[in-house]
Amino acid sequence: MTNKTRTLYTGVTSALRFRVNQHKEKVFPGFTSKYKIYKLVYFEEFSDIRDAIAREKQIKGLLRSKKIALIESINPEWKDLSEGL
């Protein structure tokens, strides 16, 4: 997820639409509320939570440039993908 200045946030959830709405509504204090993270620009789906957590850790370990390349590989215009959920 990101904001207007393209600050990046990576997380894992079992309920994507619900979790994105929580970020948009700033339900919980923390990083996403502080930096006004509201736009879903990339996501992957997994059937096993352990695989999802492993991928989250892998993405978090990437350089920012690699994260941007990953986003732009499927969403070059950085559109809000949550609108299609």
Overview of the molecule:
By secondary structure, this protein is mostly helical. The protein has one domain (16-84). Helices cover 42% and strands 0% of the residues. The protein is built from 4 helices and no strands. The protein has helices at 16-24, 31-34, 49-60, 64-74. The longest helix has 12 residues, at 49-60. It starts with 15 loop residues before the first helix and ends in an 11-residue tail after the last helix. 11% of the residues are buried. The mean pLDDT is 96.
Could you estimate the helical fraction of the residues in percent? 40-55%
Number of helices: 4
**What string gives the helices and strands in order?**
HHHH
- What's the number of domains? 1
Topology diagram in text:
Elements: H1 16-24, H2 31-34, H3 49-60, H4 64-74
Short synopsis of the structure:
Helix content is about 40%, strand content about 0%. It is mostly helical and about 80 residues long. The chain has one domain.
What descriptors fit this protein?
mainly alpha, globular, 85 residues
